[in-house]
Structure formats: C-alpha cells, structure tokens
C-alpha cells in the first residue's frame, strides 16, 4: 500500500454512527504493527531523548549525540512557572524541528486528545508522547493508540498504569517522575515501584493472577503475558527531573533503558556541554571514572525545585490514571 | 584473511538495540559480551554494530576512542564486523552525509531512505545467500545505494539489496536480531565470512552464492 493511501485511510478514531472505530488499513497484522512500533523503541536503547523548542536547540541536541528530540512549545520548567493551558506545539515549530535534524522527532499530545495526535501523525512525527506535562484534554480516557500507525510513549508511576497504557497500544513506557523540577526523586520512586511490582507479579502463582489483575487494575491477558515472559513487552525509559550526568546514570542503574531529559538541558548554564555530558554518562553509566569526566564537562545544572515544594495540585504526575 | 581462532563475540553497547543481539547469540549457544570500551575489544574475533541512531553511535565511538581501533583490528584480519541498520550504515563508504563512515564495506548506504517511522515495515523475504526465509523488520531503514566489486549481495527486497557481505563483513539494512530465527547471526560466525569477494562474488564458496550476487549500479 502506498504511503499516502495509508495516511488517508488512517481516519481510525472516527466512529460511524453505531459502528466500531475502524483500525487504520494496513497490510500488517496487529502483532506485526506492534513489533515495528516497539522496534523503534528498542533502537533508542542506551540513548538520551532531549526536549527542544526550536530548530537551533534541536541541532544542538543532535550534535551532542541525542538519540531523538522531543518537540514542544515550552519546556516543563516554563510550563510550571508560566501556567496557562499547555498544548501540542505549533505545526510550524514541529516542522522546523523535524527539518533541522535527521534523528527521530517526537512530539507531545495532550492526554486523551486524539485529534492533536492525528495532527502529529499527519506530520509524520516518529513518536507521539501522550504526556501529562501538557494540560489533559480528557480526564477519564487516554487515546486509543492501536488506531495509529505512529508509535506512542506514555508516562506511568506504577505497574498497573504501565499495563493500562500498553493495553491501549503504547509501544514505550517512561516514568512520569515530576517534570520540570530537576528533582530526580520521583522518577527513582516510579522506577523502583515498577520493578518491585514486576517482581511480585513474577513470583505469583498461576491462580493468583486474577487477583493480581484486580489489584493492578490491568487487563488479565496482559498480566498473564507479563507473568509468563517475566518482563514487560515494551521498553521502559526514565523521565522527569533528570538534570545531571549522575542523575542519568542513577536511573539507568535502576533499570531504565534510556533517558528523557526535559528542562535539564536547555535550563542549564551551557546546554551543548550538559547535553553531551549526559549522553556520555548514559552510554557508560556503570563506570565512575566516566561519570567524573561527564560531571566535569557538564555546565551548571538547572536550579530546579524540590518535589516537596510542589503543591499537590500542581503536580503533573497525577494527571492521567 | 581467514581467522582461525575460536569465536569471541562482542556486541557494541554504547547506544542501540544491543540486548536483542545478545539474545540472538544466546539462541545459538554463544555467550556474547557487551562492548563499551577499547578494553572490551581485547580478544574479540567478532563484533556487532547494532541498530540505533548512527549519528549517536558515531559520536560515542569517537568520544571513547573506539572507531579507529575497530577499523584497525578489522583491517588486520582480527575482527569480523556485522552491522545492522545504523551499524550497516557505518560499515559502508561515505556518501557526503553525516555521520562519517568506516569505509570498510564496498557499498554505500543512505540513511532513512524509506522515510520516517510511519514508513517502517516488515515482511517475509527469502535470503537466497543463506537458503532461508525470514520475517525482516525495517525501521527507519537505510538503502544500499551502490555495491562495489568487493561486496556480494546475499538478499534483496525488490531491487534493493538488504544483506551484503564483504571479506570479514556482514551488513543488513533490516533487523535480523528482532527475528525469531538467529540464522543470520549464525552465518556471521562462519569462518568462511573472510572469503575474498571479487566482482561481486564470494570466491572461496561458489556453491553458496545467491542468484543475484552482482546486483548494484
């Protein structure tokens, strides 16, 4: 099938009166489609994905060794400071960032806003982040991600949330952390919790799986699949509050396969140096001597704010469920 | 130049899907190790350059002083190289676009030649050079734009070469590490990989040639 036809046929989330939503027409089975989406996520292993707001920042990120860039209107620290409704970045901004780099371009859509996601898909971004950093468009429902050809990444704080997002079609999971703070503690908490809950699920007996599914509020078939395979069907990256090379090494050591860095780079003193240093630390996070070099080379980190200074109703991680 | 040592296999693990390659070798009963430094290259007879972002992998190879070391060891006949996707791009010759290439494989690969992720695909394709069929996954894949006389095409998708061999070199534009069957990894470990290639044909093993060994422009 020609690309254009595929894109046009991809009107998926429209529901014809009384009918079922139609899946995008594709020569691929759902399994093969999912494999290709997860495949791109696997190719990002050991890399750093950087938030950028301009073509110039995108080029700095690519030159520093970023594995992908995330196009957005404002970095999370500014969203936090300035308030207002945070939406998908403007089309002009996304296109200028896409054209500036050869690495994959990701972009954020609001939780539940499948029409923003349609715009991003039509622009052929490489990954869509259905992100709690933006103001949610739907407080009850996330996007049905199986209806899209572009893969999605979603945030999660615990295993139940991980599995709910995968069941909706997410091809990549990241911790939510607490974006825009420069405080890595929430990302650490989410990584540890997800791994602890995975351990508990692996240790469960077969007859306990239904209770596990109930406890996790996750689909039984997916719970059973993870139990059988002993691991998640998609990679898990870290995001939210990573600001230094050591922060990146910390989350990698705790089992993250790659790192998203939001405000941490372009809110630091010297973004190009900080970006390169975080890339270096992520690639060889097990070696203290490399971390010393990377720490020397990084610019001064963003000042940030401790998570306990964030009012509960100003927390981004509680958006979505 | 054949290398008759027992295989010691490494997978470059600076950035990219290295875990999938380790798993493929595990299926063959081969314990491969992750390589992140020059020390990691010691004793290696085989190294995989995985899929990932070729710009990032190049950046890190330079940063950690690995690029020239890998090229030197290969040219001395001591290190066979297998590149998938981004890794295959690096093995080939320069096309004037970033990143700079190793210039070892007599072929030139163009990055992201199919387009963006939305153009990624998979299909079952015959690999005549190996005598098997495989579900081939192409992710933001490159295309082989030119094949020289010192490279042999083992498989194609339509007119596009997808698996290319040179002396001590194997390059796939798809991801054999994501397939169930580790036959391409097994092929990489054969001593015959070091066979000379002349005029697009592997000299020492005429019986194993694919039918379209001379594809290229």
Structure overview:
The complex is a heterodimer of chains A (321) and B (217). Helices cover 43% and strands 11% of the residues of chain A. Chain A contains 14 helices and eight strands. Chain B is of the alpha/beta class and 217 residues long. Chain B contains five helices and 13 strands. Chain B has helices spanning 18-27, 54-63, 67-75, 86-91, 183-188, and strands at 9-12, 33-35, 46-49, 80-84, 107-110, 121-127, 132-138, 143-147, 152-157, 160-166, 169-172, 197-198, 201-202. In chain B, the strands form four sheets. In chain B, strands 2-1-3-4-11-10-9 form a seven-stranded mixed beta sheet. A two-stranded antiparallel sheet of chain B has the order 5-8. In chain B, a hairpin with a 2-residue loop joins β9 (152-157) and β10 (160-166). The A-B interface holds A 3, 6-7, 28, 32, 35-36, 39-40, 42-47, 62, 64-68, 102-104, 121, 124-127, 149-151, 279-280, 283-284, 287 and B 13-20, 36-37, 51-53, 55-56, 59-60, 63-64, 85-86, 98, 111-112, 115-122, 135, 137, 139-140, 175, 178.
- Average per-residue pLDDT of chain A, rounded, comes to 92
The CATH topology of chain B: Rossmann fold
Shape of chain A: globular
Question: Rg of chain A to the nearest angstrom?
Answer: 19 Å
Largest sheet of chain B: 7 strands, mixed
Structure keywords:
heterodimer, A: 321 residues, TIM Barrel, eight-stranded parallel sheet, 14 helices, 11% strand, B: Rossmann fold, seven-stranded mixed sheet, two-stranded antiparallel ribbon, 19% helix
């Amino acid at each position: 099938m020609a690309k254009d036809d595929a894109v046009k046929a991809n009107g998926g989330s429209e529901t014809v009166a009384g009918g079922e939503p139609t899946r995008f027409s594709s020569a691929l089975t759902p399994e093969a489609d999912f494999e290709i989406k997860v495949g791109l996520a696997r190719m990002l292993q050991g890399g750093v994905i950087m938030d950028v707001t301009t073509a110039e920042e995108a080029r700095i990120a690519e030159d520093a060794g970023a594995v992908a860039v995330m196009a957005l209107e404002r970095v999370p620290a500014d969203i936090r400071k300035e308030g207002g409704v945070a939406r998908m970045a403007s089309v002009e901004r996304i296109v200028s960032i896409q054209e500036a780099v050869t690495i994959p371009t990701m972009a954020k859509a609001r939780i539940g806003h499948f029409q923003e996601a349609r715009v991003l898909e039509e622009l052929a971004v490489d990954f869509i982040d259905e992100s709690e950093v933006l103001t949610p468009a739907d407080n009850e429902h996330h996007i049905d991600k199986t209806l899209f050809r572009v893969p999605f990444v979603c945030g999660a704080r615990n295993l139940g949330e991980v599995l709910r997002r995968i069941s909706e079609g997410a091809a990549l999971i990241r911790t939510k952390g607490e974006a825009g703070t420069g405080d890595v503690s929430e990302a650490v908490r989410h990584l540890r919790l997800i791994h602890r809950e995975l351990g508990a699920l692996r240790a469960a007996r077969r007859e306990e799986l239904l209770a596990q599914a109930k406890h996790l509020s996750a689909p039984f078939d997916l719970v059973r699949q993870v139990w059988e395979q002993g691991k998640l069907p998609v990679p898990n990256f870290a995001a939210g509050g990573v600001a230094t090379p050591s922060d990146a090494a910390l989350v990698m050591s705790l089992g993250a396969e790659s790192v998203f860095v939001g405000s941490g780079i372009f809110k630091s003193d010297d973004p190009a140096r900080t970006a390169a240093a975080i890339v270096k630390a992520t690639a060889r996070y097990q070696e203290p001597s490399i971390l010393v070099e990377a720490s020397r080379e990084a610019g001064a980190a963003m000042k940030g704010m401790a998570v306990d200074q964030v009012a509960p109703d100003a927390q981004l991680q509680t958006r979505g469920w | 130049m054949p290398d008759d040592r027992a295989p010691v296999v490494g997978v470059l693990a600076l950035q990219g899907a290295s875990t999938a390659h380790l798993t493929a070798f595990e299926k063959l009963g081969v314990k491969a190790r992750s390589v992140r430094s020059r020390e990691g290259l010691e004793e290696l007879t085989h190294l995989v350059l995985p899929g990932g972002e070729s710009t990032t992998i190049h950046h890190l190879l330079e940063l950690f002083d690995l690029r020239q070391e890998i090229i030197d060891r290969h040219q001395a006949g001591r290190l066979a190289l297998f590149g998938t996707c981004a890794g295959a791009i690096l093995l080939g010759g320069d096309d004037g676009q970033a990143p700079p290439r190793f210039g070892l494989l007599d072929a030139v690969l163009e990055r992201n030649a199919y387009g963006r992720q939305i153009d990624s695909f998979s299909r079952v394709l015959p690999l005549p050079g190996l005598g098997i069929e495989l579900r081939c996954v192409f992710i933001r894949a490159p295309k082989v734009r030119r094949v020289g006389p010192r490279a042999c095409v083992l498989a194609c998708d339509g007119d596009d070469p997808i698996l290319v061999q040179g002396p001590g070199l194997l390059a796939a534009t798809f991801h054999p590490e994501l397939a169930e069957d580790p036959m391409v990894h097994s092929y990489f470990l054969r001593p015959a990989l070091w066979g000379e290639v002349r005029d697009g044909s592997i000299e020492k093993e005429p019986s194993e040639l694919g039918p379209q060994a001379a594809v290229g422009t």
